[in-house]
Amino acid sequence: MLEKKRLDFQFPVLVILLAVYPLIFTIYILPRWSSLMAISLLALMVIVKEKLFIYNPCLIPLSLFTLWAFLSSFFSPYPREAWLGAPGYLSGFFSYLFFIVLFLLSYSTASRFPGKIDGLINIWLFSASIIAMLGLLEYLGLDILASMCSGNLIFSKGASSSTIQNSNDLGTYMAMAFPFAVLRFMQKASFRTVPLFALIYGCLLTTLCRSAWLGAVAGFLLILLFYPVKKNILLLLVVILIVTSALMPVNDFLLLKRMRTFAEDAELTMAGDPEGGSARMLLWQEGIKALPQSVLLGSGPDTFYRVSPEKFAARYGEGGRPAHKAHNIFLEIAVTMGIPALLFYLWFLGAVMRKTDRRNPLLFTFFVMVVIYLVRGFFLVDVITVYPIFWVLLGFYQGLKENCLFMWN
């Protein structure tokens, strides 16, 4: 009875975070941040009430990263941004605390109840399929969410953003769900798994997010080379071909036009043109220049805009939102929290990923998910709409990996 009681306390919080939180539709960041805070406080209450304190070596680098982020915030010349975050992002130190609390809850849940994580993944994928369906309808011109706000049923055609309200962030979200949808498909191609994969893959395409595409391609190559489950691989490739072919001519071949920009942007980036990679090269150049002054503690979490406000304002406008982030998660951490923080973060991720048994399909899927996230992280940012999901999945990954009794199916 005691175990059942603990389970009842942990699962609702995780279900809300995985299934409900991404469905919150708002164009403002503060309601999203407030929801994250409320869910994280509930998670902390569960951890304390149920005494869910488990030691693992991966907690050492995580603790050091947290300490370094705190010191960076404490000594930051921009305390408001360091503690709360930049306008439009709100990913300061307090947000990192929320992420870590969610990681601890999901980690302890997976450690104690490994057989229940399968159900949580299914719930998350169901929520992701709803978000994907809304995104696909949006790409086709039937923007239900916009009609709820403005009364216009047929909305302007462009990249999907769905409830996430940002096409790049939606691309990241779909890229994280992609390997789990592949796993479901390859285990059993059915009337549930085929539409699930088609929706998630299709929405990933219609976000027009090239960084998420690169991550998904890297993950898919790992799947083809090392996945322990080889069933239905030909059928999977057929579905990929059908979905891609069906979406290609939509919106005057917008998807094809976006794909063609890869070569042009790569050429500009390799040449060091500040406009390369949708002007990401300017952000990277200024961030690298700031590294010598940011070696120890950086300027504080979420303060990247302060690196070169004059140049960023000239390119993006005064206080331009895109320049608040480095569009490279590794450079972002190094510049804003110091190189030690980046090393602790990489140490933590390495500790979670090491000794993954690729013969276990689910564990290998988590491994692929992290690889996908890190690949897209070379070009995109961490945001509170998607990043909490990543931390919860990391917790599941670590908890399942150390639990020797867990068996898939």
Describe the protein's topology:
Elements: H1 2-20, H2 29-49, H3 59-74, H4 79-83, H5 93-112, H6 117-139, H7 144-150, H8 167-187, H9 193-206, H10 210-226, H11 233-247, H12 250-270, H13 276-290, H14 309-316, H15 329-337, H16 339-353, H17 361-377, H18 387-402
Helix pairs in contact: 1-2, 1-5, 1-6, 2-5, 3-5, 3-16, 5-18, 6-8, 6-9, 8-9, 8-10, 8-17, 9-11, 10-17, 12-13, 15-16, 17-18
Structure description:
The chain has a domain at 2-53 and 84-271 and 358-402. It is 68% helix and 0% strand. It has helices at 2-20, 29-49, 59-74, 79-83, 93-112, 117-139, 144-150, 167-187, 193-206, 210-226, 233-247, 250-270, 276-290, 309-316, 329-337, 339-353, 361-377, 387-402. The two termini are 25 Å apart.
Which tags fit this structure?
409 residues; mainly alpha; 18 helices; disordered C terminus
* H/E series: HHHHHHHHHHHHHHHHHH
Characterize the overall form. Answer: globular
Q: How would you sum up the major sheet? A: none
- Mean model confidence by pLDDT: 87
Structure classification = mainly alpha
Strand content range? under 5%
Low-confidence stretches: 1-7, 150-156, 405-409
Compute the gyration radius: what is it?
21 Å
Q: How many DSSP-defined strands?
A: 0
Total DSSP helices: 18
Report the span from N to C terminus: 25 Å
Q: What helical percentage do the residues reach?
A: 55-70%
